[in-house]
Automatic annotation (TrEMBL):
Active site: S236 (nucleophile), D259 (charge relay system), H314 (charge relay system)
Keywords, ordered alphabetically: Hydrolase, Lipid degradation, Lipid metabolism
InterPro entries reported in the protein's UniProt record: AB_hydrolase_fold, PAF_acetylhydro_eukaryote
GO MF term (any one): 1-alkyl-2-acetylglycerophosphocholine esterase activity
Name assigned to this protein: 1-alkyl-2-acetylglycerophosphocholine esterase
Lipid metabolism recorded as keyword: yes
Keyword Lipoprotein carried by entry: no
One GO-annotated biological process of the protein: lipid catabolic process
PANTHER family: PLATELET-ACTIVATING FACTOR ACETYLHYDROLASE, PLATELET-ACTIVATING FACTOR ACETYLHYDROLASE 2, CYTOPLASMIC
EC numbers on record: 3.1.1.47
Group of enzyme by EC: hydrolase
Length: 390
C-alpha cells in the first residue's frame, strides 16, 4: 500500500493489546502535545487536527509515558503494583494519527472543540473520539486537568528540565464528596475557558511558546480557526465539566456530554445553563438523580437532547472499549454487548449532527439528525430506563 494511506488502515493495531480505529472522515489526522506556562495554572493538552498526508509518519504512543501506567493502576485498579503489568499490556500501543504531522490550513476556519476527560483519566484516553472528530474537520483540544482528577499529570517548572507531578487524589477522609468534587468541577470548567483563551490568543496573532519544544508551531493555526464556532465536550466528570463551562463562557455555543456524572454540580446552577446540551448516555452508569438533573436542563432548553446507546457501559465511551475482552474485564468488569466500533460511530455521528445544528456548520452531518431523536439501531430517546440490553 501507498505509505501515505497507511494510517487509514488502523496502524494503531500494531504493537500492544489495543487496536484503536483510524478516523472515518475524509481528512487525515495529526496530533501534538501542547504545554503552556510553568505552573499548574498553565495548560496541558493534546491537540488533534486535520493534517496533510506525510509518508513515513510516526504514530504517538497511546500511554505517553510510564508514569501514566502507575497513575492508571492507582486510580482505576487501586493498586500501584499493577503498573508494570499494565505497562507490558498497553505500554506499546499507538494511536493511528500522524505525530506532529503538517497542519492542513483551512481559509474558512475549522470549528474548535475543547474536550474534558473523566475522573482518573488523562489527555490521551479519548483518542478514538478525538481522532474521529478531527477527521471530519474539527480541531480538538483534549485537556489534561490539573485538579488532581487525572490519573496523574505534570507541569514543567521554570527551572530547566524539572517536572512536578500532580497525583490523582481520592476524596480526603472526613470531607463531603460533593464539596470536594464541586471545587474540582469549577476548576476544570475554568481550564476549559483558559484553553479557549489560548486559541483566541493564537488567532489574534499572539505568539504562544509551547514549552514541550515540539517540532510544531502553534502559529499555523492563526488563520485556520473559526472561533465563532466553538463547542465543549467531555466524558463522565468531563461531561458535567462541559455543562458548567457553558455557564462560565458565552463563547461556547453548545456542549456534548458523554455519560455525564451530574453529581458535582450545585442545583442553583441548573437554571443558568443557557445553551443546548447533547447528553449521550450508556445503559449502565446513570443514577435517577443524575437523570433528573439532565431532564431539568432539557425542560428549560428545547434544543437539549438526551439519548442512550443500548448495549454499552460507561467505559465504552473511552479508548478502553478497544481493548481485548479479557483485558477489559480484568480492569473494569463487565463490558457492553454492542461492538465498540458501532458504539463509537453512533456517538460521534450524533455529536456531529448536533454540532452542525448549533455551530451552524455547512457540512453533511444532518444525515445523522435522526440519532438526536433516538431513531436508529441501538439508540433510544431519553435516559436509560433501568431495563438492560447488555
Amino acid at each position: 500500500a501507498d505509505p501515505v494511506s497507511l494510517p487509514r488502515l488502523g496502524c494503531g493495531s500494531m504493537g500492544g493489546m489495543l487496536a484503536l480505529p483510524p478516523g472515518q472522515g475524509p481528512l487525515q489526522v495529526g496530533c501534538t502535545d501542547v504545554m503552556v506556562g510553568h505552573s499548574p495554572q498553565g495548560l496541558f493538552l493534546r491537540l488533534f487536527y486535520p493534517c496533510l498526508p506525510r509518508a513515513g509518519a510516526t504514530e504517538p504512543l497511546w500511554i505517553p509515558r510510564s508514569e501514566y501506567c502507575g497513575g492508571l493502576a492507582d486510580a482505576a485498579l487501586g493498586h500501584r503494583c499493577c503498573s508494570a503489568l499494565l505497562g507490558i499490556a498497553i505500554g506499546s500501543c499507538k494511536v493511528p494519527v500522524s505525530w506532529n504531522g503538517p497542519f492542513k490550513p483551512c481559509s474558512s476556519g475549522y470549528p474548535l472543540i475543547i474536550f474534558s476527560h473523566g475522573l482518573g483519566a488523562f489527555r490521551t484516553l479519548y483518542s478514538s473520539i478525538c481522532t474521529e472528530l478531527a477527521s471530519w474537520g474539527f480541531v480538538v483540544a483534549a485537556l489534561e486537568h490539573r485538579d488532581h482528577s487525572a490519573a496523574t499529570t505534570y507541569f514543567c517548572t521554570a527551572e530547566a528540565g524539572t517536572e512536578q507531578w500532580i497525583p490523582f487524589q481520592r476524596v480526603p477522609q472526613g470531607q463531603k464528596e460533593f464539596y470536594f468534587r464541586n471545587k474540582q468541577v469549577h476548576r476544570r470548567a475554568q481550564e476549559c475557558v483558559r484553553a479557549l483563551r489560548l486559541f483566541q490568543g493564537i488567532a489574534g496573532g499572539r505568539s504562544v511558546p509551547n514549552i514541550l519544544h515540539q517540532d510544531w508551531d502553534l502559529s499555523v493555526l492563526k488563520d485556520s480557526l473559526d472561533l465563532t464556532k466553538v463547542a465543549v465536550m467531555g466524558h463522565s466528570f468531563g461531561g458535567v465539566t462541559a455543562v458548567l463551562a457553558l455557564v462560565k463562557e458565552p463563547s461556547f455555543r453548545c456542549a456534548v456530554a458523554l455519560d455525564a456524572w451530574m453529581f458535582p454540580l450545585e442545583n442553583v446552577l441548573y437554571p443558568e445553563v443557557p445553551k443546548p446540551v447533547l447528553f449521550i448516555n450508556t445503559e449502565k452508569f446513570q443514577t435517577p438523580e443524575s437523570v433528573a438533573k439532565m431532564k431539568r436542563l432539557s425542560s428549560r432548553n428545547g434544543q437539549t437532547r438526551i439519548v442512550t446507546v443500548l448495549g454499552t457501559v460507561h467505559e465504552d465511551q473511552t479508548d478502553f472499549a478497544f481493548l481485548p475482552g479479557k483485558l477489559f474485564s480484568c480492569i473494569f468488569g463487565r463490558r457492553g454487548t454492542l461492538d465498540p466500533h458501532k458504539a463509537l460511530a453512533i456517538t460521534t455521528r450524533a455529536a456531529l449532527a448536533f454540532l452542525q445544528r448549533h455551530l451552524e456548520l455547512e457540512e453533511e452531518f444532518g444525515q445523522w439528525d435522526e440519532l438526536l431523536e433516538g431513531v436508529g439501531d441501538s439508540v433510544v430517546l431519553g435516559a436509560p430506563s433501568g431495563r438492560s440490553h447488555l
